[in-house]
Amino acid sequence: MKKILLTAFAAATVTTVASAQNSAVNSAILNHKQGLLDKAQADINKATEHKKTKDKAKTWFYRGVIYQDMIGNPIYSKFTDDNTPTVVLESYDKAVELDGQNGEYAKLVPERKEMLYGQVLNQAVEFHNNQDWDNAIEKYKLASKVNPKDTTAVLYAAYASTAKQDYPQAITFYDQLIDMGHKTEDVYKAKVQLQQATEASDEEVMNTLSAALKEHPNSVFLMQEELKYFLKNDRGDEAMAKLENAIKADPNNASLYAVLGNLQEKKGNLDAATESYKKAIEADPKSFDAYFNLAVLEYNKGSDINNRAAKMDYATYQKKGKTLEAQAKKHYEASLPYFQKALEVQPDDQATIQNLVRVYTRLDRKAEAAKYSKMLNK
């Protein structure tokens, strides 16, 4: 008789303990609904440690909810720290792991993670604005873990790393963006510039440029950068062949003609460069690069002639100097309409304005030189 009574008592005790632990989850939920987040936190922590509730998706989902709602709360944020967003993310991930993708609580996680992403990103931006680069980068990394498909956090992590002058880390973030399919011209441009700043090998930079040009075949910046490396590595003929083939495929592309002209100019073929720049203008009457490069080409011709005159001895100058200076003046005058057209296309371009000041000064047209000098001071 006593044995039966003891067994019944033991069973009742087990039931009571299990019920108590299940009630810890329910109590946590109730306290959360009532806004008593500290009590909810204490209850849910007990539930995550007890063998009866620690493997339930419900427990971990509500652990994430309670901790998440403490973030930024005017009263209960004191119960959080820098690790709290990680606790929230880990809680939601565990809930999904226990529940399966189609489970009752797993289905609630995406909306909660979206909210968490915004919270963490806001923290990152606050650190960023205060130029606390290390903390900003860590928060950007966490935001990316919360939402691996969103590129915003990764992009700003690259910006923060660049501001910190941690260029290798910035490059890894740009690589991450490219792997995510965010293959904009700006991303590739930034990566190339960072590789150049870190003195990456020519091969590494050229590989980046090659991949970039597959995505952006008409990018003037990328083409010009690739040309620099072709020329640096004595591969000018390859560069020329690539450009000529590109022009055959797209004969109305002004950018291609502008880059071809730039290459021809570097190889010393100034007449061919002039024709290429003019073809660029025919294809696009608003091609700033073509106007500017034509102007500089004419200006440099004038400067070269002037330099020859300046190096003459007195007797030779008396015979030929004035003739050379007259020739130089013609080239300076020829550059003016191109600089003017370039300025029409980009009215605030400081390089164009500076060059107009130089040309008018060379031509001794002081009023015009003063006019453009004032534009520089604005």
From TrEMBL:
<dbReference type="Pfam" id="PF13414">
    <property type="entry name" value="TPR_11"/>
</dbReference>
<keyword id="KW-0802">TPR repeat</keyword>
<dbReference type="InterPro" id="IPR019734">
    <property type="entry name" value="TPR_rpt"/>
</dbReference>
<keyword id="KW-0677">Repeat</keyword>
<dbReference type="InterPro" id="IPR011990">
    <property type="entry name" value="TPR-like_helical_dom_sf"/>
</dbReference>
<dbReference type="InterPro" id="IPR050498">
    <property type="entry name" value="Ycf3"/>
</dbReference>
<dbReference type="Pfam" id="PF13432">
    <property type="entry name" value="TPR_16"/>
</dbReference>
<feature type="signal peptide">
    <location>
        <begin position="1"/>
        <end position="20"/>
    </location>
</feature>
<dbReference type="Pfam" id="PF13181">
    <property type="entry name" value="TPR_8"/>
</dbReference>
<keyword id="KW-0732">Signal</keyword>
<protein>
    <submittedName>
        <fullName>Tetratricopeptide repeat protein</fullName>
    </submittedName>
</protein>
<feature type="repeat" description="TPR">
    <location>
        <begin position="254"/>
        <end position="287"/>
    </location>
</feature>
